[in-house]
TrEMBL record:
Domain of life (superkingdom): Eukaryota
Function: Secreted growth factor that mediates its signal through cell-surface proteoglycan and non-proteoglycan receptors. Regulates many processes like cell proliferation, cell survival, cell growth, cell differentiation and cell migration.
Protein name: Pleiotrophin
Keyword Iron (UniProt): no
Native organism taxonomy: Eukaryota, Metazoa, Chordata, Craniata, Vertebrata
Residues spanning the signal sequence: 1-32
Amino acid sequence: MQSQQYLQQRRKLAAAFLAFIFILAAVDTAEAGKKEKPEKKVKKSDCGEWQWSVCVPTSGDCGLGTREGTRTGAECKQTMKTQRCKIPCNWKKQFGAECKYQFQAWGECDLNTALKTRTGSLKRALHNADCQKTVTISKPCGKLTKPKPQAESKKKKKEGKKQEKMLD
């Protein structure tokens, strides 16, 4: 009797093992039957970097304007494009409209040249503009005479009038 039970257990174990093998084979063939998705192709563009011209104002020498960009490459779809831009009207245009400088205070007047100068260091350059690191500007000194202290003379006049009124 024990031998019959032993044989039945062995048959059940063999059937379970075969079922397990069958399931593994079925899963493997199902995965093999699926189409493999092609990996996303990384587009390698042989287009160069955009090179931008200076901003050209629409009217006057500051305000809204446009700039043109170009790039090179054999298979580039777009080699030229136009972009809107703006030139601030308060920037010192003698150093380039796309270069902004931080200026120091005006220096003392040079009596030989009758000019005073100050230097500015580059604060910001728009759109990769080619700007000088430091710039120097000068302007005429103006009058060299001392201004009259008007505030003090007015105060004295008022005080004098108050005293006159008090005496009267």
